[in-house]
Amino acid sequence: MKKLAYFDASIETPEEIILAADFIPVRLFGDPTIGIDKANEHVPPTHCVWARNILEQAIEGFDDDIKGVITTHGCDCTNREFDIWLECVNLDFFFLLNAPLKRNETALKFFINDIKELVIQLEEKFGVNITSTKISNAIKKMNQIRNILREISEYRSKMILKGSDFHALVKMVQQIDKNKALEMLKSKLEELKTQKSHLDNNLKRVLLTGSVIDDTEFIKFLESLGYHIVIDDLCIGTSYFWDNVKENEEPIKALAQYHLNKPHYSTKFPSYKRFETIKALAEKYNVAGVINIAQKFCEPVLYTHPYFNKKFKELEIPYLFVEMEYNRESYKQLITRFEAFAEII
Amino acid sequence: MSAVKKRSKMLNATNKLKNEMGRHFLAIEQAHRDGKPTAWATAGTPVELLYTMGVQPMLPENSATISAALKKSQDFIELAEEEGFSYDLCSYFKTNVGAVLSNADMSLGGTRKPTFMLSSDVICDTHVNWFQVQAERLNVPHFTIDVPHVVSNTTNRQRNYFKKYIIEQLWELLDFITELTGNEYDPEKGKEVALNSFELGKVWQDIFELRKNIPCPVSTRDTFGGLFPLFTMTGLKSPIKLYKRMYKEAKERVDNGIGALEYEEYRLMFEGIPFWYNLKFFSNLERWNAIIVYEPYVYAFTKYTNPNITKNDVINDPVECMAELVLSFWYIYDLETRVKMFKETVKDWKIDGVLLHDNLSCRPNACGMYDLKRRLMEEADIPSLVITADMNDPRKMNETQVLNQIESFIEILRERKKS
Questions:
Q1: pTM score > 0.90 for this model?
Q2: pLDDT tens digits for B324-340?
Q3: For testing the chain A interface, which of B133, B333, B358, B367 should be mutated: the one with the most A CBs within 10 Å?
């Protein structure tokens, strides 16, 4: 089956539209094991390393089944690099989805128009017919996935499911056929229901936040240092299944509402609101500390860090901020900082 | 490299800029004294609407350039970094954070606490994040305008609803100001301000037109120096007079065959924000008889670069025009349009080479620069050079290295002239 990729610095791409166009949505992730020489010919080395990593893969060429890409408005880097993709990436279809910066009725109207435009351009390019019924069916399927993911997510705090296993699961759901994903999730949930709490209770229960963190090996690295990610507010995490899309609403409007009603990511305004989400999650899950990871040059996260630092200090919630290179060698250089934080909490 | 340092001739009128800046700062002080509403605004926002609503604008990024010119920006930047703001974040932003923390005087790049803040993501997300940080710290309301991102394959159909979205937000902005200050939108005042803004932009464009002449009558000393009113005073009458004087003087030079440089050999374009802490750097070019005759960044702020926007449009519907202008802002052109405009400019202004500033503090502007360079060289056969530095942080500029790069670049231009 044909696939359509999406490049999203948060998670506001309506996968349902891609499904309704009879494509498999495939979220693009970085690969911290590769070099990025080709991307560096197009983008200065002081720009987001994660975005350059994905550009590198795009220049090298994706799987042949991937016919196009939707870049969803995120940060300056992902938005600006869209034109560079047009220059040097060989795909049939490119669309910049302008997910709005703000959250109000005006922004909602605009987002509906932009999703409708995406529908029109997909129909024109691929000769498909994206009907309301097909979108509604896709919403139902995605809601099922969201429901199960929310349920599975809780097994982290029950000390049954490792954070890295959950991260790998969410990542896989964002890349494979949704029917297969649904089956896989159902089976995983049944398996988890039979298990009792078995993870070491001495692990440090933390909340993970920050930039797009897509390397499961990094989560494993944190686990190797004695941490357990019981909750997160990440786009490869709770932001992907925060709520459900309304099924009794006009489907495009419902999709736009869903994405605008989700908690704020650092790429949206006001990004300080993200603190409220993290605070609520930290309290609900009774975490011992909060770890905020900024990929190198990730401006949205860098701007919010001093505010978060101040607020967590006021709340007396231990908070660790780390700026990180996007390669596995660099993780090792951070061992001391993570170990020191584990000591504190 | 020639050991003799030459100095390009500055227009006498440009020296009067200090008076204009003085007038601007005085207006801010007066507004504070009189309890008149004031607002911080980011570049690219429609400052005209603030003047129309009786709100005195202040642009912290212009203030930041003053700090840099007075060699104060590094101190302010380091102060912001002590607060936890990364070394990699925008140096204008950090200069402002440091200036506010130091309670710096306006003459050193400080700013007054405003009634509210107005930002937009039209140029960068930094503007929005910057004002979010400062609005929280100073405890003032903040309004932001979300401008959809126009890319190389954006269709006219998309532009139409993009524009509608901006128009709606501009009316929301006016409501926001009314609610905060009690001042109502007066359409007549709106027209008057818009007309002044239009005229200011057009006179500046006329000055640029004169720079097509060989020798070029106006150097960067005048353009970087004279830029201030385009940001802060657009909508007022007084800077129009100043620009007209600049134009008149430049025209006289053209009529008499006088250039800003005594002997002009190489005509260059400079893309990006200059190094405000080291403007004398540009004098170095004169050693090689090279002069910058066009700066897209400076030209962008004439605003009225969209040929579809006429004087009548501006007068008839200032708010709608502002929305259109925001969408067609030179500084944020998509790559395809940027390449096209650069190629046309190179031809019209008879440019020999292009200098591109990979500004570590302005990633949106630097993004696409490598492809721009490649395409200019391949499609227009124009030598182009990328220089990496920073607009306000002197720590990030290696002057010797950049000068060596430029010297080699001039050597290439010299060889091309010979052949």
A1: yes
A2: 999 988 888 899 999 99
A3: B367
Confidence of residue B3 (pLDDT cuts 50, 70, 90): very low
Question: pLDDT at position B6, please?
Answer: 56
- The residue in chain B having the minimum alpha-carbon distance to the alpha carbon of residue A111 is B165
Q: Examine the pLDDT at B1 and tell me if it is beyond 80.
A: no
CATH for B14-156 is 3.40.50
B289 interfaces chain A, CB cutoff of 8 Å: no
Asked if the Cβ–Cβ distance from A110 to B336 is below 8 Å, we say: no
Can you tell me the distance from the alpha carbon of B402 to that of A322, in angstroms, rounded to the nearest whole number? Answer: 32
Residues A255-292: tens digit of each pLDDT? 999 999 999 899 999 999 999 999 999 999 999 999 99
A158 Cβ contact partners less than 8 Å away, ≥ 6 residues apart: A197
A79 contact B CB<8A? yes
ipTM for this model:
0.96
Query: Exposed e or buried b for every residue in A285-314, given b needs 16+ CB within 10 A?
Result: bebbbbbbbbbbbbbbbbbbbbbbbbbbee
Which CATH code, of 1.20.1260.10, 3.40.630.10, 3.40.640.10, 3.40.50.11900, is assigned to B190-418?
3.40.50.11900
Classify residue A5 by its DSSP letter. E
Contacts of A270 (CB under 8 A, 6+ apart): A264, B132, B142
Q: Which of B144, B360, B364 sits opposite A80 (nearest CB)?
A: B364
Question: How close B86 comes to chain A (CA, Å)?
Answer: 6
Q: Where in chain B is the domain with CATH 3.40.50.11900?
A: 190-418
